[in-house]
From TrEMBL:
Entry-linked InterPro entries: Isoprenoid_synthase_dom_sf (IPR008949), Squ/phyt_synthse (IPR002060)
Name of this protein: NADH dehydrogenase complex I, assembly factor 6
Species for this entry: Staphylotrichum tortipilum
A Pfam family it matches: SQS_PSY
SUPFAM superfamilies documented for this protein: Terpenoid synthases
């Protein structure tokens, strides 16, 4: 599960990379290039999205590089509002990533770590599953970039339903990409991923409150001189939840968690995330016992979620869920955050990291329960 945290001083990505990654690529990436790209991505996740860093270890080996590249790119996209001085520059960077994805899937990745690792993962996926197996991965990735671009200005969500839609197009989409990288094509797994992704997107929004509501940081040029500042403070809690709790945005900027109605609004939003996790657990129990999920999938029938019965081969539902269970561990990380949030009376400013999370994930994976 990704979170908006750990922002730097506004340096461009190129300035943070090893020197040999800053040149345009002229030859195919070597095994050394791929190894160094992998280490770069893992280092970014270790410091910027620790939950994703941990979840990666439980995934099937062939999907781990794709997961690392995709989650690192998501982290890069989530940080963009903090590392650019104007929305126009942000849109330029989004187009850079869109072009980069197209080049990477065309077999001509720029000499950039995320692209190199993703190119290697896509080539391995094609070798395992055949030509065309990467198409859905590219579809979801471009949708992620477009959604991040749409929400780059950190405007509040009008409603809780709008926040859920954002989560579907970001965090659920990241999970669809992980399933595609396994590869595992299953309506039931997509259904589980949709609920988990919505919970993760809501949790990421709650995690971001202490960072985004804080005063903006200056951006420095190469010489060290100031060239502007990042965005003004923002609060992404849905407006309908804030109105119901009597919470005013400016009060949070001035008083932080002491603003009237703040914890009530957070509780309402966190409850919706928890509802999705409860639904996930009920569905998972049904599917693991050979039953149906218990309710219809809201995206059923959409082209990207239509799979032929032959796509699953001879595997039954229980076998499919067992084979893809590690992908569902995102739910465990989200649930862990929600429990810690509840323990501090729904004050995101007081939530601390959980050093037991690796063990919590291991236990969930061992018992196939999220």
């Amino acid at each position: 599960m990704s979170s908006i945290r750990g922002f730097g001083t506004g340096l461009t990505q190129a300035a943070r990379l090893p020197r040999h990654f800053r040149r345009g690529i002229t030859t195919a990436p070597t095994p050394t290039d791929v190894s160094e790209a992998r280490q770069y991505c893992l280092n970014q996740l270790r410091h910027g999205d620790y939950e994703a860093y941990l979840v990666r270890h439980f995934l099937p080996g062939p999907a781990q590089d794709a997961y690392a590249a995709l989650r690192t790119l998501n982290l890069e996209l989530a940080r963009l509002p903090e590392t650019v001085s104007t929305p126009a520059i942000g849109r330029f960077r989004m187009q850079f990533w869109r072009d980069t994805v197209n080049r990477t899937f065309a077999g001509n990745p720029p000499r950039e770590p995320i692209s190199i690792l993703l190119h290697s993962a896509v080539a391995a996926l094609t070798a395992r599953a055949g030509p065309g197996s990467e198409n859905s991965l590219k579809f979801w990735l471009l949708r992620l970039i477009s959604t991040r671009e749409k929400h780059m200005e950190n405007k509040p969500f009008a409603t809780l339903a709008a926040l859920e839609d954002y989560a579907e197009h970001t965090y659920a989409t990241l999970m669809y990409m992980t399933l595609a990288a396994v590869p595992l094509r299953s309506m039931h797994m997509d259904h589980l991923a949709s609920h988990i992704g919505k919970a993760c997107g809501i949790v990421a929004t709650l995690r971001g409150i202490p960072v985004l509501a804080a005063p903006s940081q200056p951006i420095h040029g190469p010489s060290g001189s100031g060239v502007g500042s990042t965005r003004p403070p923002a609060l992404l809690l849905p407006l309908d939840a804030m109105a119901e709790a009597g919470l005013r945005e400016e009060d949070v900027f001035r008083r932080g968690p002491h603003a009237d109605g703040f914890q009530d609004a957070v509780f309402q939003v966190a409850t919706r995330a928890n509802d999705h996790l409860i639904t996930t657990r009920e569905m998972l129990k049904n599917l693991q016992s050979g039953k149906g999920p218990g309710h219809d999938y809201e995206h059923q029938g959409e082209p990207e979620h239509v799979y032929s019965t032959t796509a699953l081969g001879d595997e039954d539902t229980r076998a499919v869920v067992q084979r893809g269970f590690a992908v569902l561990l995102e739910a465990t990380a989200a649930g862990d955050y929600l429990r810690r949030l509840e323990s501090v009376n729904f004050d995101p400013f007081k939530v601390r990291s959980n050093w037991k999370l690796p063990w919590v994930l291991w236990k969930a994976a061992k018992h196939h329960q999220v």
